[in-house]
Design brief:
Elements: H1 5-13, E1 17-18, H2 20-27, H3 31-44, E2 48-52, E3 57-60, H4 65-72, H5 74-131, H6 142-146, H7 160-166, H8 182-191, H9 200-214, E4 218-219, H10 241-247, E5 250-253, E6 259-262, H11 264-267, E7 268-269, H12 294-320, H13 328-335, H14 337-381, H15 387-394, E8 400-401, E9 407-410, H16 415-436
Parallel strand pairs: 7-8
Antiparallel strand pairs: 1-3, 2-3, 2-9, 4-6, 5-6
C-alpha cells in the first residue's frame, strides 16, 4: 500500500483535520488524487469522516496515524528500514570518493619513495664495489629530495577543522544548513549537491493553490500566469486548463463576455484561512557548482592536481624501468596504474565539464524566470484594466469553514446516537422559532 508522502505531510501540517481542498492547495495534488488518498488513508488508519449539512466532508486523523499505518503493513516497515539504511550507504558512497583520492595519493607517494630508495641503494652498492670503499653519506639522496613525504597532506592536520569552519560560508536559504566535512566536499566538487529544483512542480502547484485560496476560490487567469510555463499569449486563456483540471475548477462568463474561474473544492476548509504570502512569480533556483566552502574547494583542486602530478612522476619511473623486479607495494601499484590514471584524469575532467554544463543550464533557467517575471510585471501594470474581471470574480469568492455545529454525520459515533442528536437539534430549532414568533 503506497500513500503519497506529500499528502501525509500536509495532514500533519494542517492539524490532522482537513478537507480535500485543504490537501490539494497545501500539497499540490489533484483534487481526485487527494480525495482518493484521504479516503484510503482514513480507512487504513482508523480516521473519521465528518459530513456537514451541505454534504461537505471533513477528514479527521489521529496524530499517530503514521505509526498505525506502519504497524499494519510490513512493506512500510521494510521501506522505513531501507530508507534508514540507504542514508548510511549513501553517506559512505559520498565520502568514498575522498577516501579513494587520499589512498591514491598515498599509494603513489609511497611507491615513488620505495622506487627512489631502491634506486639509490643499488647505485650506492655499484659505487662501493667499483671504488672498493665506502662512500660518505650525502644526506640520503632521494630522501633529501622528498623531505617529509606527508607534508603535502596539511589538509588533514588536527587544526584543519578550525581553519575550515572559520572560512565556512552559510549555505543558501533553500537548502539544509549543515556543515559539510572535507570527504563530503570531494563528492560535492565532483558531482555537485543535487537538483535545486527537484520540488519545482510541487512548489508550482502549491503556490497556485495558495493564490486561489487567497482569493477565496475565485480568480482570473492572469493571476496564475506568472507560475506557469505554457503561457504564449495572455489574451488566450488556454494556459489555465491544467489548473482547472488539477483543482476541479469551473469557468464563468460575465455579462460583458469576460471569463473568470472558481474552484468550489478549494473554498471548503477545516478552519479559517488567512491570506498567505506568495511570491509574485515562480522562480527556479540556480544550480550551484558546489556547496563546499572555498577552502574545501581549493583543497580538492590541490589534491586533484597533486594526484595528477604523482601519476606523471610514477609513470616516468615505471616506463624507465626503475621499478623492474620490484614486487610488494610497488608491484601492486604498477598493476593498478591504468586505473590510477583514469581516476586522476576523471577527477579533474568531470568538474570541468560540469562547470560549463551548469552555466548553460542556468542561462536556460534564467530565461524561464525572466519570462515569468515579465508576466508578473504585466499583471501589476494592468491591474486597473482588469478591475472589472476581478470584481466579477469576487462575486463567486467565498470561504466555507466546516464547524462543529454543521456536522450532521460522523463515523466517530453510531447511527442511533447521531439520529437522537439530530432529532434533539431539530426540536431545539423549532422551539427557538416558536419563541421568536
Amino acid at each position: 500500500m503506497n500513500f503519497d508522502p506529500a499528502l501525509m505531510t500536509s495532514i500533519e501540517q494542517l492539524g490532522y483535520s482537513v478537507t480535500v481542498g485543504d490537501i490539494a492547495a497545501s500539497s499540490g495534488l489533484e483534487i481526485n488524487q487527494a480525495q482518493k488518498g484521504l479516503l484510503a488513508l482514513a480507512s487504513e488508519t482508523q480516521g473519521n469522516l465528518l459530513v456537514s449539512e451541505t454534504g461537505d466532508i471533513l477528514y479527521k486523523f489521529s496524530p499517530n496515524f503514521r505509526s498505525i499505518l506502519t504497524s499494519r503493513y510490513w512493506q512500510l516497515k521494510v521501506k522505513e528500514w531501507f530508507k534508514s539504511i540507504w542514508k548510511v550507504v549513501f553517506y559512505l558512497i559520498r565520502i568514498s570518493f575522498g577516501i579513494i583520492l587520499i589512498l591514491s595519493i598515498l599509494l603513489m607517494a609511497v611507491a615513488i619513495i620505495l622506487i627512489l630508495v631502491t634506486y639509490n641503494s643499488n647505485r650506492d652498492d655499484n659505487d662501493s664495489s667499483s671504488s672498493g670503499g665506502g662512500r660518505s653519506s650525502d644526506g640520503g639522496g632521494g630522501f633529501f629530495f622528498w623531505g617529509n613525504p606527508f607534508s603535502s597532506f596539511w589538509l588533514f592536520s588536527p587544526n584543519y577543522e578550525s581553519r575550515r569552519y572559520s572560512s565556512y560560508q552559510e549555505e543558501s536559504e533553500h537548502l539544509p544548513k549543515r556543515k559539510m566535512n572535507f570527504l563530503e566536499s570531494v563528492f560535492s566538487f565532483l558531482f555537485g549537491d543535487g537538483d535545486p529544483n527537484a520540488d519545482l512542480e510541487q512548489r508550482r502547484w502549491n503556490t497556485i493553490g495558495t493564490v486561489v485560496r487567497n482569493n477565496q476560490g475565485s480568480i482570473i487567469s492572469e493571476q496564475v500566469a506568472p507560475y506557469l510555463d505554457n503561457v504564449k499569449n495572455l489574451e488566450n486563456d488556454d494556459y489555465i486548463l491544467p489548473v482547472l483540471t488539477k483543482f476541479n475548477g469551473y469557468p464563468e462568463v460575465s455579462p460583458t463576455g469576460e471569463i473568470i474561474y472558481y474552484f468550489p473544492d478549494l473554498q471548503v476548509t477545516a478552519k479559517n484561512q488567512s491570506e498567505e504570502f506568495v511570491s509574485t512569480y515562480l522562480q527556479e533556483r540556480p544550480w550551484e557548482f558546489t556547496q563546499a566552502t572555498s577552502g574545501q574547494l581549493w583543497g580538492a583542486i590541490g589534491l586533484g592536481s597533486l594526484n595528477i602530478a604523482l601519476v606523471v612522476v610514477l609513470g616516468s619511473f615505471l616506463k624507465g624501468g626503475a621499478a623492474v623486479n620490484l614486487g610488494g607495494l610497488v608491484g601492486f601499484v604498477s598493476s593498478i596504474y591504468t586505473g590510477l590514471i583514469f581516476y586522476a584524469v576523471a577527477f579533474m575532467a568531470i568538474p570541468a565539464v560540469r562547470y560549463f554544463w551548469i552555466k548553460w543550464r542556468n542561462q536556460k533557467l534564467e530565461t524561464r524566470n525572466l519570462q515569468r517575471r515579465e508576466k508578473a510585471n504585466w499583471l501589476q501594470e494592468n491591474i486597473n484594466n482588469l478591475q472589472n474581471k476581478l470584481n466579477y470574480a469576487r462575486q463567486f469568492a467565498q470561504q466555507k469553514v466546516i464547524k462543529a455545529e454543521d456536522i450532521t454525520y460522523s463515523t466517530e459515533k453510531g447511527l442511533l446516537e447521531q439520529s437522537i442528536e439530530q432529532s434533539d437539534k431539530i426540536d431545539e430549532e423549532w422551539k427557538k422559532r416558536l419563541e421568536s414568533s
